[in-house]
């Protein structure tokens, strides 16, 4: 061993050792892949073993690198298996598919000590069984027996190709030919086999089979198809017709049967060539078709031929069977004809007819119970092959045979059918006596009186028919005839008139015996004039002329007297001598002369004839048609009022005769033409649609007819709703001045008080003085303030809808006023040379405001690319924003002065750009409302330190052991209600602000706001019981015990942290190593991840994403993470971080608690304890915190080296161990420029 060591150390051995070392580092294949055959779906493994593998080993498929990973991306079924430490890089292919049929190589890439090597090419041959074979024929197409068919079967997509065999009913078909072709994919083959088959009727229902197999299958794949062979059926037979003679009315049930055939035969029935039925049933088990015919036999079926035909799809022609039937039937009707009424002694004739029957019928006659033999019979051919029979009978009638029945009987021997027809015999003879019931003939009757005349008659068959006649003419007004025991009567009611004077009324009695008897009477009647008529010889009557009228009264009994009248005015005429007239009366006449005026037109002149004996008179009138020129009515209006846009109607009240009056209208000396909205009606009234104010004025109408012309004037007054406009808009006035807002209306009528003003702003303001000057409305505002600026509306309403309005903008000019709240005076940003800050100021002023900026008293130069100014305006609000790029703590932490000015003055605001820090305290902390169990508080937020801030309320009462804290929700709310308080209890409240950098002092210089809750409300008031009081007292004692125990635990925890810190320092001096480096790296990551700084005085929050996903994204894209993204490594737990604005803590408060020797922090309850005197409040971040160890740590020393103090507060800021553990976290929270590094 010593010699070997000496040789190795000698210089002469060095070249040899180098050669050996170089040979050892060259890569080489120990095992190379070989060709492999595998069935589809199996697992294939290609072996590859590499000696001294130093390069990247991966597989190549068809020239494509698959990758060095064990699970190959994009190839879920591929994986490299084996032990890489032994050089095993075997390629495993699971569930082999056709795509895997390829060339594969194993290669080791070039390394620093070895060149690349490539293995032999190995082919993977994937065997694929054929898919299910199929026949290339239509399975729905049947075969016909006797024909030859070509059967083709294809076995698709096999590798290697499949062998195909054809079978019919289990017997292999000989003479089949097979060949191959390309499959659906590359490397796949289809096998096609063909054979010729002759179809037989016995093949129906047998199977054709196709078997396909290759070396992959253990048994063949089979496809079968059932043969459907068509062949003709046997001839049909009829069952159910034993005899050919059938009585009419019988229901025949016949069955036609056809055996065999495929498909089974279709059957149909015909009668004399007409189809009766096309329905049939098939019985596949018995291989037959049958059709049942239900035939109701009637006379029309006599000598009919019934036929049943069978046919299927392959029958060359139908096959049939037929039968002829003979029908025995009765006559459809027996008709008795002739006259069955006769006058006594006359001879009557009757006939009896029987329609067609088989066989023909025999006919006999009967009168009552006596048979009549005086008849003649004839027989002829009838319908449906039958015979008709006719019998004619003659007989002389007598009075004794009246009412007897005459019977005709028809009898059929074949069907034993008998049918009769009867008729009743009537024998006529005349009535015997007629008489009247009437007034005496010598008594005069008054015209208009109703007189009853009654006629009676007895005897006769039938009873007599009575008829009334006046002077030999029939009277139709007689009442209906009535009967009584021995005869008939008929009444005539006569309303007497002049024609009844000396008239003869006669009543006659007749019947079918054609012999008439009668009775008569005569009446005397008094009556007034039967007619009145006024005549004149003048054709046209004109105004101012005289008209002569003649009145002639007709016959009256006795004589009448004539008088004249015109309305209520009686006129005196000249009487004429009387004359004889019809109906035995006297006629009289009279003449009248009348001077005419236009008022006489259409009036009636009445002539009356009065009979003193009857105290009655009659009259007639003559309507005067007086022609005169147009005249306007006294009621014709002289003025018409109308509302604009409505329809105007100017009535024309004119009369004239003739009435064909032509009127023309003029407006402003222009003749009006009918067009558009201008129309005349039938009375020539003027109608104007959609009247406008231009249509107002005087309208003159001139009317003309054949007698002359006339004219009149009417004024049209068009009233319209007000329209209004501002005399000046906008109206500008300086602050404190007087503003006059004027609107002018166009309206008719102009009325007092038609103007009103309205303020369109949100807040209420005093409108000022409203006045009206004719058509103008004025709103005067004195001592104008900024509150008066805005939009005013002038409304004009003269009572005609709709009211009109116009808006007037009042612009109050004032010097600029800048927003100077706490959030406007500071802007925070990191001065790391990479952040961007926006410094904004906002001013309100009119007219337009212009801005200028200074930095530390020096006017800013915006030509510098690091500074950019943007100005925006919205109404009177003007905003100027200075954007500072790459903020530097040394250069940009300064006072930026914003000056806003216009023509009325200027305002100035100093804005300080500072580093991000804890927020400023709120201010104006005050009470809003208070109830018995709650208090609502309000405050004004201070500067948020450049970060999102939230608020926390603390409160206590006299009996409480310490303060209770409530986180305000939502976090950015400035009003909050504290609930769960006791009634009539004084509480001390205060509020402060918190952000990621720390917390502020309490509002209003740490002042306490003392509020006393109210008493219980009167409704539902309930005093607490003793148990609740005792429980409250017990709760106070328990709270006190918890506070004491918690204090002891804090002391013990501080001591543990102190000793742990000293022990860690000793360990840190001796072994900084990898643990220290790792801690430093994580500290740097924590500092970068927690530096979430807002850089503008318009504050926003930025959402944190999944840290694990962000880290992966950064690695894959080779980009750097933004400074406000949390990062984590695989060894750390991954969490989602959200901005504070999305965080929703519970709002209920709880007293402080202490548990055991360690008090864990609950990050969801948000309870805090006031146990420190001063120092910033450390916010608790939502993260996974480890449980700190107890002061007595039983781990071994090397196990305690990696333990670090917890990164969250434990309740006291004065524990030195805790301060040391928190130091690095606080450094990370500080701005970049305050971490001791130069900018």
UniProtKB/TrEMBL annotation:
User: What InterPro entries does the entry give?
Assistant: CD80_C2-set (IPR013162), Cell_adhesion_signaling (IPR051275), FN3_dom (IPR003961), FN3_sf (IPR036116), Ig-like_dom (IPR007110), Ig-like_dom_sf (IPR036179), Ig-like_fold (IPR013783), Ig_I-set (IPR013098)
Signal peptide positions on this chain: 1-25
This protein's membrane topology, according to the annotation, is: Single-pass type I membrane protein
Region Disordered, annotated ranges: 1070-1105, 1197-1224
Cellular-component GO terms for this entry: cell-cell junction; plasma membrane
- What is any one GO biological process for this UniProt entry? cell-cell adhesion
Q: Which residues form the Fibronectin type-III domain?
A: 921-1016
For this protein, the parts annotated as crossing the membrane are: 1038-1059
In this protein, which residues make up the domain named Ig-like? Answer: 11-119, 235-326, 331-426, 431-518, 530-619, 630-717, 722-811, 816-912
Q: Give any Pfam family that matches.
A: I-set
Task: Give the main localization category.
Answer: membrane
Localisation: Membrane
Keywords, comma-separated and alphabetical: Disulfide bond, Glycoprotein, Immunoglobulin domain, Membrane, Repeat, Signal, Transmembrane, Transmembrane helix
**MF terms (GO), sorted A to Z:** cell adhesion molecule binding
**CDD domains the record matches:** FN3, Ig
Ranges annotated as biased composition (Polar residues):
1088-1098
Q: Which domain of life is it from?
A: Eukaryota
Annotated family: Belongs to the immunoglobulin superfamily.
Name of the protein this chain belongs to:
Nephrin isoform X1
